[in-house]
Automatic annotation (TrEMBL):
Superkingdom, taxonomy of origin: Eukaryota
Lineage of producing organism: Eukaryota, Viridiplantae, Streptophyta, Embryophyta, Tracheophyta
Name of the protein: Acyl-[acyl-carrier-protein] desaturase
Binding site for Fe cation 1: E122, E160, H163, E246
PANTHER family: ACYL- ACYL-CARRIER-PROTEIN DESATURASE-RELATED, STEAROYL-[ACYL-CARRIER-PROTEIN] 9-DESATURASE 6, CHLOROPLASTIC
Length: 379
């Protein structure tokens, strides 16, 4: 095991506390030790050089089976379709904003916290595109490369870009949230980056995106349901529209891993096991607002307690992917591959048992969030 150097630790603390050090900010011990231990054992560019050929050989397959999942711009929704129309005469535009504020005024504070956290996660899109382009064999080498992998990842980015734009504008118009603190959080998060433990390895990268796209589909689906229950059908439509995009993206990434399992079962099975051993970390785990050293953990608690994204969902997603990829029936594995298969196929019940025990111990918490003007929420 490699040990983390002082220089790496200082850089990491710098990142976690914001790239401009904030003297008032306390360190984040839990995250720091967890990420430090991940980084201390991390490797980069672990895929064997000859595996690049696997991705090259799949280019015509990707053109036929992945690119059709990109939606043409002319038939795609845009944030404009779901927001008050600023091209209208001022009184009509004001009327639309007024109606938006009437719809959002009864939404519970804890719901807004989760929606803001989801929106901030979407807003860190430059980090995600950078990360995808670092995956060996599938990155966009020129910035406008025409390989199907690059065409897909740029189209994916363009589609994703609307998610943060739409949610952020809607929340801004609602007047219910502290935009300055939200903008600072986005600024800090983009400066901090992320660490997913995928080693620039596209096998692990596509396992991660399969899981994560489904997680965002589940999460936006739940914020849609809660918006409807909270009296805002337009916000429900917004979250539902974003969830539908996430579902289509999940389909693309799940298909890629399915194909990799067919052409290279052991390598792919081992990548799935490695990612599950490391946990699929939410990509905004370096989130902070310059005030609350536990912001990300508190946001995660809020998402868990509101039922927007829970440990049960994590286990459900794992079970879904095991079924979808038919991992239990996978053949032609080496002994290492079989061990990876056994580990992954037995993991979901263990996660559920751990969660049940954690739920039994859980007690009510008072949490304060700068995003809602430091109001307290009880979770
Ligand atoms: Fe998204
Ligand atoms: Fe997504």
């Amino acid at each position: 095991m490699l040990s983390i150097s002082t220089q790496q630790r200082v850089a990491l603390e710098w990142n976690l506390n914001g790239y401009q050090p904030c003297p008032k900010l306390k360190p984040r011990p839990q995250i720091t030790s967890k990420i430090c231990s991940m980084i201390s054992t991390s490797k980069t560019h672990t895929m064997a050089q000859e595996k690049v050929e696997v991705f090259k050989s799949l280019e015509s397959w990707a053109t036929q089976h992945v690119l059709p999942l990109v939606k043409p711009v002319e038939i795609s929704w845009q944030p404009h379709d779901l927001l008050p129309d600023s091209s209208l005469p001022l009184d009509e535009f004001n009327d639309q904003v007024k109606r938006l504020r009437e719809r959002t005024k009864e939404l519970p504070d804890e719901y807004l916290v989760v929606l803001v956290g989801d929106m901030i996660t979407e807003e860190a899109l430059p980090t995600y595109q950078t990360w995808i382009n670092k995956l060996d064999g599938v990155g966009d080498e020129t910035g406008s490369s025409q390989t199907p992998w690059s065409v897909w990842s740029r189209s994916w980015t363009a589609e994703e870009n609307r998610h943060g734009d739409l949610l952020k504008t809607y929340l801004y118009l609602s007047g219910r949230v502290d935009m300055l603190m939200i903008e600072k959080t986005i600024h800090y998060l983009l400066g901090a980056g992320m660490y997913l433990g995928t080693e620039n390895n596209p096998y692990m990268g596509f396992v991660y995106t399969s899981f994560q796209e489904r997680a965002t589909f589940v999460s936006h689906g739940n914020t849609a349901r809660l918006a409807k229950e909270g009296g805002d059908p337009v916000l429900a439509r917004i979250c539902g529209t974003i969830a539908a995009d996430e579902k289509r993206h999940e389909t693309a990434y799940v298909k890629i891993v399915e194909k990799l399992l067919e052409v290279d079962p052991t390598e792919t099975m081992m990548a799935i096991a490695t990612m599950m051993r490391r946990n699929i970390t939410m990509p905004a785990h370096f989130m902070q607002d310059g005030r609350d050293p536990h912001l990300f953990e508190n946001f995660s608690v809020a998402a868990q307690r509101l039922g927007v994204y829970t440990a049960g969902d994590y286990a459900d997603i794992l079970e879904y992917l095991i079924r979808r990829w038919r991992l239990e029936k996978l053949e032609n594995l080496t002994s290492e591959g079989k061990r990876a298969q056994e580990f992954v196929c037995g993991l979901a019940p263990r996660i559920r048992r751990l969660q049940e025990r954690a739920d039994e111990r859980a007690c009510k918490m008072d949490l304060t969030f700068s995003w809602i003007f430091n109001k307290k929420v009880i979770l």
